[in-house]
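User: Just a sanity check before I run the rest of the batch. Below are the structure tokens for the first item. I only need the designed sequence back.
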């Protein structure tokens, strides 16, 4: 895990910000148990979880996302009886797919994501 920190001045006073960067899922030198432990540590330590994936949204990307959601649900933080989770940001990089609907019309990234997730756009 790579760690970097700094103090930011805000209207509420100084706040410490700590950035953690860890290796991705599916390291060929390690097993999925390593991925689960690393993910658990990240979920427990962070207030914002950034999931960085590369390429098109495929079965592997959704399987990794599903694993993260299940793990987060399992180890959610508890504050006064309320379960809280870190905010989640999905960064999709090196995306090379043409953004078009079934009829060949151009669509936005948001529309593509909603379609890939099976969301009802209305």
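Assistant: Here's the designed sequence for the first item:
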């Amino acid at each position: 895990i790579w760690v970097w920190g700094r103090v930011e001045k805000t209207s509420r006073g100084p706040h410490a910000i700590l950035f953690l960067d860890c290796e991705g899922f599916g390291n060929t030198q390690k097993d999925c148990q390593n991925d689960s432990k690393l993910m658990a540590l990240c979920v427990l330590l962070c207030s914002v979880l950034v999931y960085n994936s590369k390429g098109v949204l495929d079965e592997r990307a959704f399987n990794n996302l599903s694993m993260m959601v299940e793990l987060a649900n399992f180890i959610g933080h508890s504050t006064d009886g309320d379960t809280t989770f870190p905010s989640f940001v999905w960064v999709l990089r090196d995306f090379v797919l043409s953004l078009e609907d079934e009829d060949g019309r151009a669509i936005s990234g948001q529309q593509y994501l909603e379609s890939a997730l099976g969301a009802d756009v209305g």
